[in-house]
Design a protein that fits this description.
The protein is an alpha+beta fold. Helix content is 45%, strand content 18%. It contains 14 helices and 13 strands. It has helices at 2-33, 67-70, 202-210, 251-263, 267-280, 285-302, 305-321, 326-337, 342-358, 363-375, 379-392, 397-409, 413-424, 428-441, and strands at 37-43, 49-59, 62-65, 75-80, 86-96, 101-106, 127-132, 140-145, 152-154, 157-162, 174-176, 182-189, 197-201. Strands 8-7-11-12-13-10-9 form a seven-stranded antiparallel β-sheet. Helix 6 (285-302) packs antiparallel against helix 7 (305-321), helix 8 (326-337) runs parallel beside helix 10 and helix 12 packs parallel to helix 14 (428-441). The radius of gyration is 25 Å and the shape is globular. It starts with a helix and ends with a helix.
Length: 444
């Protein structure tokens, strides 16, 4: 009897502890995500209400949702959870009917974008939360887990199976992990299946974001459009299979083969070789870095956001398995800056700050971080960082060049020329670029 009572008390304590942790997780998720979630109300040509759905900010004025939420609509509004004001939907900036995804631009909204998760690391049993507005119940959070196999094929598409309930009105809402990162977009529930709910993987959303289109009106969005029309173009950097030898067993053989192909400028073949190396060794950072190199070269050749986005995904994967590699960290930050917008610049800042924490006496980290502040037009902060780098390496050509550019921006011609004189003794090519900039900026 004593043992039974002891076991009961232990069970009660463990249950209370587990419930407390789950409640804390749910509260934290609510605090992190709800200000970024919207309730969508859609109307037809005659201003009649036709659908209710959910969505979430992926840019300050762009929300993601399901295509079927906006299908047949001519007008619509988005209400941020917890706020009274609504924003009119200006139009569509991204559409993937096949995967039931849409990106909508809102008039006058300034939302807080949610971060997309790296879904290659998700596992069965991982705790997730579906956030949305089921049956109009605003700001509902439904806990669950990733169930079955991590990603299932359903009607020729990859979907994440979850146990979190998805009801009418939940469609288009984010499914997030315990970090508040979006692993998928709530999309459907099988009527005859218990706890069989699904989400579109966030990796498809990342592809859609990489190819934003000019705003097009809601009016005319029709269910009768061919299934594959306007699907994201995956041509150059995408997942369309490219013929390649599958007979090699060692991932390093694919890496070496890919390196030879890169040297021969056979970029598509090289990309496929590295992708096979990743499949053979999904935790091998060298394989991801090799794939990053292929996408980077494809970006240089074609200048598509999709190629750069995939470069970033690959180098982030390399960093997961080699987190202290400062070369990977530098590559990630510089590719984020290629997007030339504030969101990615701020992410690059965090990447370079971590580089400084790892190697506080390495001048290139200060130069990299300064480049972020130059991008953000915060020249005073950039100059302070460059002066720190100069103390570590007085002959660093990048430091003198960037300092010269900043002095020109400040209108300080004398200091800019001083940096030019120093640079001429170190790097003639970089000195020439600064000289031209000085000449173009100050009247003779």
């Amino acid at each position: 009897m004593k043992h039974a009572l002891k076991n009961f008390v232990l069970f009660a304590v463990l249950f209370t502890f587990a419930f407390s942790i789950n409640a804390q997780d749910a509260r934290l998720i609510a605090k992190q995500t709800l200000p970024s979630v919207v309730m969508l109300e859609m109307y037809d040509d005659d201003n009649r209400f036709i659908s209710l759905g959910s969505g979430f900010f992926v840019r300050t004025d762009i929300v993601a949702t399901n295509y079927h939420v906006i299908e047949g609509a001519s007008d619509g509004f988005a209400k941020i959870v917890g706020q009274n004001s609504s924003y009119q939907i200006e139009g569509i900036v991204g559409l993937d009917r096949r995967r039931d995804l849409a990106l909508l631009k809102l008039k006058g909204a300034v939302g807080n974008p949610l971060k997309l998760a790296d879904i290659s690391t998700i596992e069965v049993g991982e705790e997730v939360f579906a956030v949305g507005n089921p049956k109009g119940l605003e700001g509902t959070i439904s806990p669950g887990i990733i169930s079955g196999s991590s990603i299932r094929e359903l009607e020729d598409e990859n979907l994440i199976q979850i146990t979190s309930p998805i009801s009418p009105g939940s469609s288009g809402g984010p499914v997030v992990n315990k970090k508040g990162e979006v692993i998928g977009i709530a999309v459907s529930s099988l009527k005859d299946g218990q706890n069989l709910n699904f989400a579109v993987p966030s990796s498809y959303l990342a592809l859609l974001l990489a190819g934003l289109k000019p705003v097009s009106p809601l009016r005319g969005v029709s269910a009768k459009v061919e299934k594959k029309e306007n699907v994201v173009d995956l041509d150059v950097c995408g997942d369309s299979p490219y013929p390649f030898d599958n007979s090699l067993s060692d991932p390093w053989d694919y890496i070496f083969k890919g390196q030879d192909l890169l040297a021969a400028e056979k970029l598509l073949e090289a990309k496929e070789a590295f992708k096979r190396a990743v499949r053979k060794a999904p935790k091998m950072h060298e394989a991801y870095f090799s794939l990053f190199r292929a996408y980077s070269k494809l970006w240089v050749k074609y200048k598509t956001d999709d190629c750069n986005r995939r470069s970033i995904i690959a180098i982030k994967q390399a960093l997961i398995f080699d987190p202290k590699n400062v070369g990977y960290r530098t590559a990630l930050g510089l590719h984020l800056l290629l997007f030339n917008n504030e969101g990615e610049a701020k992410e690059a800042r965090e990447v370079f700050l971590e580089g400084i924490r790892i190697q506080s006496k390495e001048p290139k980290h200060y130069v990299n971080l300064a480049s972020v502040y130059i991008e953000l037009k915060k020249f005073s902060e950039a100059k302070d960082l460059l002066l720190k780098a100069l103390k570590l390496d007085s002959k660093n050509a990048d430091v003198h060049r960037d300092l010269g550019f900043i002095y020109v921006k400040e209108g300080n011609k004398a200091s800019a020329i001083q940096e030019l004189n120093t640079l001429e003794k170190i790097d003639a090519e970089k000195a020439d670029s600064l000289r031209q900039y000085i000449k173009a900026s100050f009247p003779l």
